[in-house]
Write a structure and sequence with these properties.
Blueprint (H helix, E strand, L loop, with lengths): L5 H33 L5 E5 L6 H17 L3 E5 L6 H8 L7 E6 H6 L13 E10 L1 E5 L8 H10 L5 E4 L5 H13 L4 E4 L3 H10 L4 E5 H9 L4 E5 L26 E8 L4 H15 L2 H8 L4 E2 L4 H21 L6
Parallel strand pairs: 1-2, 1-3, 6-7, 6-8
Antiparallel strand pairs: 3-10, 4-10, 4-11, 5-8, 5-9
Length: 334
């Protein structure tokens, strides 16, 4: 049986339902707009896929310090090492796409895409934010080899194919892939000797157990300066300021060869573009200071000023480039 109060109650509930529907429809947009305008309203995390103390950790921490100043909120580093950096990448890229969790990607990120079965797409499941810095590898030889130039190395390798050896930081590492890229470009065969990290690879090159190593500037330059290693070339298009007399690989007769060690910030897919632009601008401003230039130079790096779109294009390009090389040279993790 209906009562006199039934219709008014139903009308009230109907109006309340309509109001809730309207709030549900417009509420998220309002929150998103507010967050974008005020970002960041809480601390921002940069995940690093390697242990503290390495090159990636160094970059992340100096950038986090500067972003804290620029953004007015704490930006902190969380180290999540494992699986060649993939564990940290997975954790970061499966976080909400709100700009509060970023990942410090390195060149190895684009190599790993072709060696590991990843639970995410390294190109489509990310938001490129800012490439931070880049630098070359130093191609260095044990002085006892009497190799004075890259030309000497290639000539000896062609004269005695398969007898020379080169060290890397491990199978599937960026030093392994960069070295194989040069061997392929030069048309030579040199035996790969993988190590568990850069330090033992350099140690055995210095001792003469292997003849050649592609080493980062931070780890290799001191040994070149002390005379323990001979620098034959650097792998980027510009010479290294700390070694002005050492030519590039391009200058040594291989005009298409250009390999950089780079680091940059990426995030999960879906970070609003205005938040991305805000972080990118803050990063570029921080990287443009003389203080930052000096800190980067100590590691053989220079600041990069890519837009998010340019950085995304670089990542996609390198995933493809290393994919072709991995297949052509049959590179594996073993």
């Amino acid at each position: 049986m209906r009562t006199a109060h039934t219709n008014p109650i139903r009308r009230t509930l109907a109006r309340l339902g309509s109001l809730i529907a309207v709030c549900s429809a417009f509420g998220p947009l309002a929150v998103q707009a507010e967050t974008a305008a005020q970002y960041p309203t809480r601390p921002v995390k940069i995940v690093v896929g390697f242990a503290p103390g390495g090159g990636s950790d160094f970059i992340a921490r100096i950038v986090a310090q500067k972003l804290t100043q620029k953004l007015g909120q704490t930006v902190f580093v969380e180290n999540r090492p494992g699986a060649g950096g993939n564990l940290g990448a997975e954790i970061a890229l499966k976080s909400p796409g709100d700009g509060y969790t970023l990942f410090l990607a390195a060149t190895s990120y684009t190599v790993n895409a072709n060696l590991y079965k990843l639970p995410f797409d390294p190109v489509r499941d990310i938001t490129p934010v800012a490439r931070l810095a880049s630098g070359p590898f130093i191609v260095a030889a044990n002085p006892k080899t009497d190799l004075k130039s890259l030309k000497d190395f290639v000539s000896l390798a062609k004269k005695e194919p398969g007898k020379l050896t080169y060290a890397s930081a491990g199978s599937g590492s960026i030093t392994h892939v960069a070295s194989e890229y040069f061997m392929s470009t030069a048309g030579i065969e040199v035996l790969h000797v993988p190590y568990k990290g850069t330090s033992p690879a350099l140690t055995d090159t210095i001792s003469g157990q292997v003849q050649i190593v592609f080493g980062t500037v931070a780890s290799t330059l001191p040994h070149v300066k002390s005379g323990k290693l001979n620098a034959l070339a650097v792998t980027t298009g510009k010479r290294l300021a700390a070694l002005p007399d050492v030519p590039t690989v391009m200058e040594s007769g291989y005009p298409t060869f250009d390999v950089a060690v780079w680091h940059g910030l990426i995030g999960p897919k879906g970070i609003p573009s205005d938040i991305v632009d805000k972080i990118n601008k803050a990063a570029r401003e921080a990287l443009g200071t003389p203080e930052m230039a000096e800190q980067l130079a100590s590691d053989g790096l220079t600041a990069a000023g890519d837009t998010p779109a340019e950085f995304g294009a670089l990542i996609a390009e390198e995933v493809t480039r290393w994919g072709h090389l991995v297949k052509a040279r049959n590179i594996t993790l073993k």
